Amino acid sequence: MSESETEAGTLETMRPNPAWSADAHEDAVEALSEEGLVFRVWGGDWCGDCRGQLPDFGAALDAAGVPDERVHHYPVEKEDDGSKTGPLVEEYGIELIPTVVVERDGEEVTRYVEDEDRPIAAYLAARL
């Protein structure tokens, strides 16, 4: 594990939303449960978009039975100029949060960036 990954922390905003319904999102739960997928999540507990979107995504991952070791949190800070800093931000080209990168066998499969037209789980499920 790289030094940047060991610096990764926990995003409180990834705590699953108890009101999220897995039954209403069966396709997303099924897609996210695929064996071998790794989810890399950049966000900030200070960020309104993250507070609005990540709890539902956390609930979707939970419903899909994705083990914690396949979900990596990368807390991001915002600099005065608006740029983002944090673990692996430069390596993955993170400019907006939340950003979720899905990998399979170490290769990026798909990516969700802050302002897509649907919730994170549904967006990623359509692309997996």
UniProtKB/TrEMBL annotation:
Residues 11-128 form the Thioredoxin domain. InterPro entries: Thioredoxin-like_sf, Thioredoxin_domain. SUPFAM superfamilies: Thioredoxin-like (SSF52833). Residues 1-26 are annotated as: Disordered. Gene3D superfamilies: Glutaredoxin. This is Thioredoxin family protein. It comes from Halobellus rubicundus.
